[in-house]
Write a structure and sequence with these properties.
With 275 residues, the chain is mainly β. The chain is built from two helices and 13 strands, in the order αββββββββββαβββ. Strands 1, 2, 3, 4, 5, 6, 7, 8, 9, 10, 11, 12 and 13 form a 13-stranded antiparallel beta sheet that branches.
Length: 275
């Protein structure tokens, strides 16, 4: 591996390691019992999301969503849909489903005249290995593998490759301020995913957008934090993420505009109590 590439990776990882060690060493806080939420709920979220990885622009999205907190199946906006398959004190196996919003290419200058970006539905297995787990702290390695389908639910449906998303997370729970989860994860994708976002066929080439053949490989890192603060009958959740694509394999594509993207999300979840 080239020395310059190694130095870049070290530079982007060093701040997270220091950040992680600092918070991992915070003492547990003993306190009153936490507020137990209802199994069912209804949420409303809004946030700023980039139109696609490496896009020059994004937009505010709104989403109502159901919530279910079962022992096997869980549904929420932050984690998507997940279901337990196997778990013990150290190892968890589950499946996970998430999605990405569609975007009209007419609203994206770099993609003007190209096909629209459809809904991307992602489903696959997920493994978690816990290095440490207590009443108030969790440190674990997480590795989801997701199979992507892109569709407009009418005239277009296609396989959009496989995503590999290994990374580390550390969660802290303090009754007075809620739960914080810090993440540092990497993204790699097969050629179908990369071509969907970064390929420029000759028929779509213009004077300012040259033809480009996208390749499978590394996309980038994400550094982020999420927070959940429960109240009696409702919960306030938020997340903030920085996406670093400076080592992306297809950054020379004319559709790859920004090497850094940001995402912010806020949601309110209301418990539904059984009658």
């Amino acid at each position: 591996m080239p020395i310059g590439l190694v130095e870049k990776i070290k530079g982007r990882a060093s701040w997270f390691v220091l950040f992680f060690v600092f918070f991992a060493c915070l003492p547990d806080v003993s306190s009153a019992a936490s507020l137990a939420p209802s199994r069912w709920g209804l949420g409303l979220g809004t946030g700023w999301l980039s139109d696609y990885p490496g896009a020059a622009q994004g937009r505010i999205r709104f989403l109502p969503f159901p919530v279910y907190r079962g022992s096997i199946l869980r549904v929420d906006r932050i984690s998507g849909v997940s279901g337990d398959v196997y778990h013990d004190s150290k190892l968890d196996f589950s499946w996970n489903f998430i999605f990405q919003f569609p975007t009209n290419s007419a609203s994206i200058p770099a993609r003007e005249g190209m096909p629209n970006l459809d809904w991307m539905l992602s489903l696959g297995p997920q493994m978690k290995y816990y290095f440490y787990r207590s009443a108030h702290h969790k440190t674990f390695f997480r590795f989801p593998v997701r199979f992507n389908t892109c569709t407009n639910f009418s005239t277009r449906t296609q396989f959009c490759g496989v995503a590999f998303n290994p990374g580390f997370r550390h969660s802290m729970w303090y009754p007075s301020v809620g739960e914080f989860t810090f993440r540092w994860e990497a993204f790699s994708h097969t050629s179908e995913f990369q071509k969907y976002f970064y390929e420029v066929e000759s028929k779509y080439a213009t004077a300012t957008r040259s033809a480009y053949h996208a390749r499978a490989g590394f996309l980038g890192f994400v550094y982020g934090v999420s927070h959940a603060l429960p109240f009696e009958g409702w919960t306030l959740s938020s997340s903030a993420n920085i996406y670093d694509y400076s080592l992306a394999i297809n950054q020379k594509s004319p559709l790859f505009v920004h090497k850094t993207n940001y995402a912010f999300f806020v949601a309110v979840t209301f418990d539904i109590k059984p009658i």
